[in-house]
Amino acid sequence: MKKAGYISKEKEYRKRAKELVSQMTDEEKISQLIFKAKAIDRLGIPKYNWWNDALHGVARAGVATMFPQSIGLGSTFDEELIYKVADIISTEGRAKYNMQQKYGDRGIYKGLTFWSPNVNIFRDPRWGRGQETYGEDPYLTSRLGVAFVNGIQGKDKKYMKAAACAKHFAVHSGPETLRHSFNAEVSLQDMYETYLPAFKACVQQAHVEAVMGAYNRVNGEPCCGSRTLLKHILREEWKFKGHVTSDCWAIGDFHKNHKVTNSPVESASLALNNGCDLNCGELYAVLTEALAEGRISRKRLDEAAVNLFTTRMKLGMFDDDKDNPYSKLDYSEVDTPKSEQFNLKVSRDSLVLLKNDGLLPLDMKKIKTIGVIGPNANSRNALVGNYFGTASRYVTVLEGIQDRTKGKIRIRYSEGCGLYKDKVEGLAETDDRLAEVKAVCEESDVVVMCLGLDYNIEGEGGDRSNYCDGGDRITLDFPGRQNVILKAAVESGKPVILVSMCGSPVTMNYADEHCSAIIQAWYPGSQGGYAISDLIFGKYSPSGKLPITFPKSLEDVPSFTDYSMKKRTYRYSDKDALYPFGYGLSYTSFELSDVHADKVQIEKGGKILCFVFLQEYFFKPFKLVFRCAFNS
Questions:
Q1: 373 and 305 inside one domain
Q2: Are residues 361 and 395 in the same domain?
Q3: Structural domain includes residue 578
Q4: Which domain holds residue 430?
């Protein structure tokens, strides 16, 4: 992609930022290093809140297009698609920003600095925030991360549309319950081959404007104050030009939990001195004391402030709106019919068909009744994942099937069971919907069973909704009584289509053996119900591929706290997976031939692993025969 024009104007923006910062007092500079930056009226600087998120749509600020969660975007394996997703997100974000500015709303989640994408590696299936990533592979994560950053930041000749942020730097993927005190011990090989490549690509190829540090330590150094990560690697090796932000309240962990400092002043000083420009939190207020004690230099204080104002300059916050094409985006650009239609396509492309014994696609002319069963069948929560905004309309699986079959097929429904509790009604006995499940199955020709998780079970540690181990999972099984109702459906003798809605791998050994078809739907976004229904009825051919390995058992996975890549992911595991990385079925077949690898030499006994990614062939005739040729 051609380099955006605003990148070549870096020196100009930085010069203007220096001139502005030079007019500030030390206290005013420090006030700008906290995420709730105060207004400086005498210099014409309005207040600004840096905190905003947009992993799969503008989050937490009202209506916006809600795309599939990031792990679902990862299953598309499609850089161009992810770029278009991010382009729509940033267009809506800029349009919402312009509207909010008009009415004087400068609060949290209302800015143009999006703390997305999450390019951490999904190394362990228990991690609750793995859903925010693009999966377990460094190369795939790099390519989709770069595409997302480019889409967010735009390619105008003078201004950024919005600022992206690669997080969480670095070596961060749980456990969530330990993140404020945990030390991730990692080899240089794993660091540079697995944990850093996506960040490096975002910095050097996409020129990401911001990088967020992680909560944990890496080899003894807290990430938000790590000399190794922030100075040696990010600034010196990779020549990063943007700004660094802490994760929220992470700097306080230095003395409270990591015990690498003894006081707030020492913690703030360590973070600032080693390259953290922005404090998500309020601890940087003590930098006034740190400056007086000589713990930080005025030069470094100025540098941090300049880095932040350079970003705001690139966004056009101190220029006439007439000069900025993005200032012309108005609220009509938000949640448009065109974006909704594209969202449906993205949702379709994110779905992965894991099993099909020939049942799918269903022929509406041959079916009279479909049973739709399960706690996620009519759940909006199961559409959105975490870090979500508000869709103007949500289509659940039940609603999608009802709408697509209206007047043609009778749809019977049962919630089946609670998502993780052993009953639906509080005063009822265990399995209080089991009889209804059996009745629906008896009356149905086909059963669509919708199981899985939602953000009440997996997510970020500290989220009040998470009941399960601070957001991480303690088992890979479907929770609660979900397997009970699945077994009841199978034992009914009717063909069962399992729709698994979750942001991380679940063990589906029983389902793989007994269900006629399995669809991995992730958290498919607000149009997810239509996408799933359209797959079931053959309106398109599925093309999604797993961006993460589905193990047969949790016993096949190393200790959660072990950050060595040994025995992890498709690259290093010595176990047979239930469904391997890159796996996904279609409604057509492919034959590959006459493809040769040139100049490839491997040692005797070595292996070549080849992936072929084919998209959107639908029902068109297609034939390609593949053969690897190499010298050993």
A1: no
A2: yes
A3: no
A4: 337-572
Report how many domains make up the chain: 3
For residues 139 and 9, membership in a common domain is answered with yes
Beta-carbon contacts of residue 470 (< 8 Å; ≥ 6 apart): 128, 175, 176, 177, 461, 462
pLDDT of residue 4: 79
pLDDT along the chain (632 residues), means of 10: 78 97 98 98 98 98 98 98 98 98 97 98 98 98 98 96 98 96 98 98 98 98 98 98 98 98 98 98 98 98 98 97 96 98 98 98 97 98 97 98 96 97 96 98 98 94 64 95 98 98 98 98 98 98 98 97 97 96 92 73 56 38 36 32
pLDDT at res. 618: 31
Residue 624: predicted pLDDT: 37
> In terms of C-beta density within 10 A (0-12 exposed, 13-18 middle, 19 or more buried), how is residue 380 classed?
middle
Cα 99 to Cα 66, 93, 219, 376, 547: the distances in Å are 19, 10, 45, 35, 37
Distance, CA of 520 to chain centre? 16
528 and 612 in one domain? no
pTM comes to 0.94
The catalytic site residues sit at: 247, 458
CA dihedral 8, 12, 13, 16 (to 10 degrees): 180
The DSSP code sequence of 298-352 is HHHHHHHHHHHHHHHHHTTTTS-GGG-GGGG--GGGSS-HHHHHHHHHHHHHH-E
Distance separating alpha carbons of residues 330 and 327, to the nearest angstrom: 8
- Asked whether residue 426 falls in the same domain as residue 529, the answer is yes
Domain ends where: 296, 326, 356?
326
Return the DSSP state at 412: E
Non-local CB neighbours of 213 within 8 Å, separated by 6+ positions: 168, 169, 223, 224, 225, 226, 229, 230, 244, 245, 246, 247, 250, 276
Q: Two tokens at 575?
A: 């176990």
Under 8 Å between Cβ of 359 and 80: no
Q: What is the DSSP letter of 372?
A: E
Residue 543 near residue 615 (C-beta atoms within 8 A): yes
